[in-house]
Structure formats: C-alpha cells, structure tokens
C-alpha cells in the first residue's frame, strides 16, 4: 500500500524537473554565440611600442621680472617667441611615462624701471632640455589627459650685448610642471595640447660703460604648445 504513493511522488518530481529543464535548454539554444576577439586586433594592441614622439609648435611666454643688484629700482623684461619643439616619451607602464622635451629659442633682454633708458641690454639663445615624469589617465577612451613634474637644465649660448658691451647669463637648474592631453585618432596617431611652467631664475653678469653689474633674471616662462603625437 505504501509503494504506490512513493512511485507517484517520484513520477511527480521527475515531471517537474523535466518541465524546469525544458526552458533552460531552449534559452541555451537561443543565446547568441560570443564573438571571439579578432587576432589582428589583439596583435595590433600588443604591437604598440613604449616609445612615443611629439612635434609641437610652442609659444614661450616669459615672466618679466629681475633686477640689477647695484641699481635700486631696476627691472628686466624679455621677449617672447614661437618655436618648434620635439619631445620623446617612454612608457614605463600604461599610466607612467618619462618625457624628454627639446627645443631652443632666444630672448632679448630689456632694461625696465630705473634703467628703462638703456633699452635693449643684450640677447641670449636658450636651450632648456626638460625631463618630466608623467601620469597618464586611461579611462576616457581616445582622450588621454596627463600631468607631470620634473627638472629643467637651461643652457645659455651665443650671448651678445647691445647697451651692454658683454652679457653672460649663467646656466641654471629649475623645476618644471606640466599638464596636457592627447586625442588619439587611431592606435598610432593623435593630436596634442600641452602646457608647461618652468621655474627658471639664472644669475647673470653684464658690462656697461666698463662696469660689471650682476643680478638675477627671473624668466619663469610658460610653454604653451600644440602638435602631433605618434606612438610607435
């Protein structure tokens, strides 16, 4: 008498399991197959080199400040310029890169304040190689902003005097801050906008009327550039 209810219970459980399994089997049949990532795409990503170069047009905008030690109320100002710039980057990781920035320009030096009557004191060419360590943000698709900080060593060469018979601006170290962004058109090519601030305050000597004067030229230039990026 107890076998019949047990058989009926087992039959009921089996039927319920079959009814539950049927929709799952149909759903599995209807689920779209996952498309594999094309091997060519994977190879292209893997093929990206850690090396990158940029070519920019660069505006050099100086901070007109400085003085002559021996003359009270004296001041200095400097000409601005537009130059080409090359920089070379190496990616240590996806986020961290080191960048070497290369370019050269000149600056005319003018007397201001109590020595404004001197006019143009002289001219010097400036070579300010700058090395920065950058952090790159990678969460914005083709738009890739970054910020950096580093050190600058500026060399002054081909110096000549006008009101001064001789000008000697001393080579100098300085700090550098940087912010910018690339917009990548594809894996290799992009456009770039970049702003750097150099803290550059070299000492100098100038000979005027047979007397040698000393002081500090507080250039502190802004470097504002735009150009083309190429990732190898």
UniProtKB/TrEMBL annotation:
What keyword terms does UniProt attach to this protein? Signal
Tell me the domain of life.
Bacteria
Q: Does the keyword NADP apply?
A: no
What transmembrane ranges does the database entry give?
none
Matches recorded under Pfam families: OmpW
Biological process, per Gene Ontology:
transmembrane transport
> How is this protein named in the record?
OmpW family protein
User: Which organism is this entry from?
Assistant: Rhizobium glycinendophyticum
């Amino acid at each position: 008498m107890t076998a019949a209810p047990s058989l009926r219970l087992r039959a009921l459980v089996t039927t319920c399991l079959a009814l539950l399994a049927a929709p799952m089997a149909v759903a599995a049949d209807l689920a779209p197959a996952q498309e594999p990532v094309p091997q060519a795409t994977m190879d292209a990503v893997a093929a990206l080199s850690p090396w990158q170069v940029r070519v920019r047009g660069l505006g050099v905008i100086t901070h007109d400040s400085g003085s002559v030690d021996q003359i009270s109320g004296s001041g200095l100002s400097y000409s601005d310029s537009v130059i080409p710039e090359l920089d070379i980057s190496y990616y240590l990781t996806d986020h961290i890169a080191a960048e070497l920035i290369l370019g050269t320009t000149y600056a005319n030096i003018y007397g201001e304040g109590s020595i404004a009557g001197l006019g143009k004191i002289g001219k010097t060419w400036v070579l300010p190689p700058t090395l920065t360590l950058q952090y790159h943000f990678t969460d914005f698709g083709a738009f890739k902003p970054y910020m950096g900080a580093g050190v600058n060593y500026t060399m002054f060469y081909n110096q000549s005097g006008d009101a001064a018979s001789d000008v000697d601006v001393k080579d100098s170290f300085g700090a550098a801050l940087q912010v910018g962004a690339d917009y990548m058109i594809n894996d290799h090519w992009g456009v770039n906008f970049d702003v750097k601030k150099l803290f550059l305050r070299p000492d100098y000597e100038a000979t005027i009327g047979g007397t040698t004067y000393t002081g500090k030229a507080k250039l502190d230039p802004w470097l504002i550039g735009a150009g083309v990026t190429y990732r190898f």
